[in-house]
């Protein structure tokens, strides 16, 4: 049977597309309630009518919903209205955490964001997915068991950066505690978080909103994708995730409905972010700057980084225009500008007007965008040039900004232009790849290991099976320029081929190291880990009643220490797989995943390859880690966590030995 995809993953789905605005006088404009973007008209002749219609829709919708906007008047949550750049960051991103020193490094992370991206206003500290389901820990455990998390959040706050935590409503099968409403509210209060990201949800249930508000008055809720119109009142922000714009830039519906509602444009798998930047610029909203997606490098190119840095600098200083100014979308900015694919919006405040312009074409465009008027002075906010009739150049796929004033330009605007102009623009739109490298190369074992499963030297061609998760497997993103990976492209069974060569015979232990064996090592060697969090969590007073079961609650470092003590080393993933198919290879019970010496990093994400599977059966949600006992050819990519968080009741290890050729 031939399986046919019902969608083209490189094209927007119908749900992603902008919504056409009816222009008839008697049109039912409530059809726009469900829109993501209100599509711009194809003809300049229809623009004025189009503006009238979207304004009529807004007034009718506000009346229909009895909208007050009172929540946006609250001081506690007003920070979100100018939160133009937010990063979703894995807590163990190697810019944020040092695996060598076992400490968080927020200043290093923020310095990189300032230097490359124009800085951040907020971060979402991502914690559990894609490792949750490895064992019984629930989503709250993945926050609460981290030593020093409160101090990390305090450091972000001291740097002027707001902090959001993540809520996974699909986590229903791991360890149960109190109801999610209670757990999340308590976590927010305890950590002092400023926002909650609603993973997989557009909006939270009213009960959850009320509980969070009691825990942290003014808490900001940010949904994934389009926020429901009726819930803009109590959700201060939302993602503009996978929002396809019209060829002429359209209007973001939620922000047009409530100017103070912040959206963050994001297309996580795309390598060209120019359309997101342009839509954010002409609408006065922000960006989700997500460069590492669940362990996969999807970093922004130099052109988009430099454009965003200029835009964010302007937005932060001109937020009073964006929030309070009289907004005119699709302002007529110059003769024949539309023909040159230059479009823009304006915000008028008093006698000053800000023009935000975009160039949709693939070549730079130079024009006089603002008509000459008596007594009006124009400032190019990108270069600092001042004239009564200003000619500006807009880079290919880039943006421009012009401020017009009566009489004289505000000196603060001159200073702002000077600040922006020193941000060097790049036209380099090439994707900057990262390659993984092995983090730890074991030296040859001291002992030969007389018993175990023998692997003869030679070349081996291995078929590796894995599940196609968002983590990818080794190098490269699992999806490139895709709008929304769906089943069967998401979580589908996949294979790859690996070729490995063994120069000498290798012996892999028949079974995992047991509790008795590991505790003997601890007593005899005096071993103490650098970080004790979760170390041998199942052992009480140095005794474990399940001595012949596989040791667990050990990290890669703990396993390596044991192997070195007995004169061996950890097997690589390939050695484990080859041995696993040979006679004599055993799995102790309960079944646990096995650490291998295959630890990798691309400089931002660190991961290890696990083999063997475990008895864990957390499989009610497709977002959980791989469940069940697995055959030797199956591999699982585990993103590594620091401060002992990778120690699990479902991971053990076995030893390998190098046998010298005689």
Describe this protein with a few key phrases.
single chain, 662 residues, alpha/beta, eight-stranded parallel β-barrel, six-stranded antiparallel beta sheet, 14 helices, 21% strand
Strand order of the largest sheet: 2-5-6-7-8-9-11-12
Strand content: 15-25%
Q: Report, as a whole number of angstroms, the end-to-end distance.
A: 54 Å
Count of β-strands: 33
Low-confidence stretches: none
Structural class: alpha/beta
Global geometry: elongated
Percent helix, as a range, is 10-25%
Give me the number of helical elements. Answer: 14
Instruction: Indicate the radius of gyration in whole angstroms.
Output: 28 Å
Mean pLDDT: 95
| Main sheet makeup | 8 strands, parallel, barrel
């Amino acid at each position: 049977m031939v399986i046919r995809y019902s969608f083209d993953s490189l094209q927007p789905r119908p749900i992603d597309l902008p919504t056409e605005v009816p222009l008839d006088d008697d049109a039912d404009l409530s059809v726009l309630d469900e829109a993501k973007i209100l599509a711009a008209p194809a003809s300049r002749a229809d623009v004025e009518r189009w503006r009238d219609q979207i304004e009529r829709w807004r007034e009718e919708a506000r009346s229909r919903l009895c909208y007050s906007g009172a929540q946006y008047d609250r001081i506690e949550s007003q920070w979100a209205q100018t939160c133009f750049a937010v990063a979703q960051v894995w807590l163990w991103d190697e810019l944020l955490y040092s695996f060598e020193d076992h400490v968080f490094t927020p200043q290093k992370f923020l310095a990189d964001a300032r230097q490359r991206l124009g800085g951040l206003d907020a971060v979402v500290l991502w914690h559990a997915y894609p490792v949750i389901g490895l064992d019984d820990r629930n989503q709250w455990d993945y926050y609460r068991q981290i030593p020093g998390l409160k101090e990390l959040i305090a450091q972000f706050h001291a740097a002027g950066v707001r902090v959001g935590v993540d809520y996974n409503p699909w986590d229903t099968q791991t360890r149960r505690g109190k109801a999610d409403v209670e757990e999340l509210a308590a976590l927010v209060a305890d950590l002092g978080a400023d926002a909650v990201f609603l993973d997989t949800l557009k909006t939270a249930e009213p009960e959850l909103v009320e509980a969070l508000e009691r825990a942290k008055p003014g808490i900001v809720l940010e949904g994934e994708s389009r926020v429901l119109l009726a819930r803009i009142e109590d959700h201060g922000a939302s993602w503009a995730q996978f929002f396809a714009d019209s060829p002429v830039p359209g209007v973001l519906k939620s922000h047009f409905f409530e100017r103070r509602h912040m959206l963050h444009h994001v297309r996580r798998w795309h390598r060209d972010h120019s359309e997101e930047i342009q839509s954010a610029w002409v609408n006065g909203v922000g960006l989700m700057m997500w460069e590492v997606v669940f362990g996969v490098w999807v970093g922004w190119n130099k052109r988009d980084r430099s454009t965003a840095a200029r835009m964010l600098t302007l937005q932060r200083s001109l937020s009073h225009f964006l929030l309070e100014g009289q907004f005119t979308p699709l302002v007529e900015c110059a003769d024949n500008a539309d023909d040159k694919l230059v479009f823009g919006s304006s915000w008028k405040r008093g006698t000053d007007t800000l023009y935000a312009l975009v160039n949709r074409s693939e070549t730079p465009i130079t024009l006089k965008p603002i008509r000459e008027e008596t007594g009006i002075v124009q400032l190019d906010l990108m270069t600092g040039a001042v004239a009564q009739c200003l000619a500006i150049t807009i880079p290919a796929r880039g943006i421009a900004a012009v401020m017009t004033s009566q009489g004289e330009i505000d000196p603060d605007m001159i200073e702002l232009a000077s600040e922006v102009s020193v941000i060097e623009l790049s036209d380099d739109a090439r994707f900057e790849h990262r390659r993984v490298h092995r983090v730890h190369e074991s030296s040859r074992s001291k002992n030969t290991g007389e018993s175990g499963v023998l692997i003869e030297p030679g070349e081996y061609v291995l078929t590796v099976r894995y599940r196609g998760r968002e983590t990818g497997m080794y190098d490269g993103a699992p999806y490139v320029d895709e709008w929304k990976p769906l089943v069967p492209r998401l979580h589908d069974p996949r294979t790859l081929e690996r070729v490995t060569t063994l120069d000498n015979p290798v012996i892999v232990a028949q079974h995992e190291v047991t509790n008795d064996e590991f505790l003997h090592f601890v007593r005899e060697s005096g071993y103490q880990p650098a970080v004790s969090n979760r170390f041998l969590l199942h052992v009480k007073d140095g005794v474990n009643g399940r001595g012949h079961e596989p040791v667990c609650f050990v990290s890669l470092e703990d396993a390596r220490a044991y192997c070195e003590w007995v004169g061996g080393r950890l097997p690589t993933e390939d050695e484990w797989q080859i041995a696993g198919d040979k006679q004599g290879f055993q799995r102790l019970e309960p079944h646990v995943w096995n650490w291998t010496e295959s630890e990798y990093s691309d400089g931002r994400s660190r991961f290890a390859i696990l083999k063997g599977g475990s008895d864990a059966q957390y499989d009610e949600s497709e977002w959980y880690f791989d469940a069940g006992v697995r055959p030797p050819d199956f591999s699982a990519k585990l993103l590594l966590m620091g401060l002992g968080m990778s120690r699990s009741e479902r991971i053990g290890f076995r030893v390998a030995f190098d046998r010298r050729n005689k």
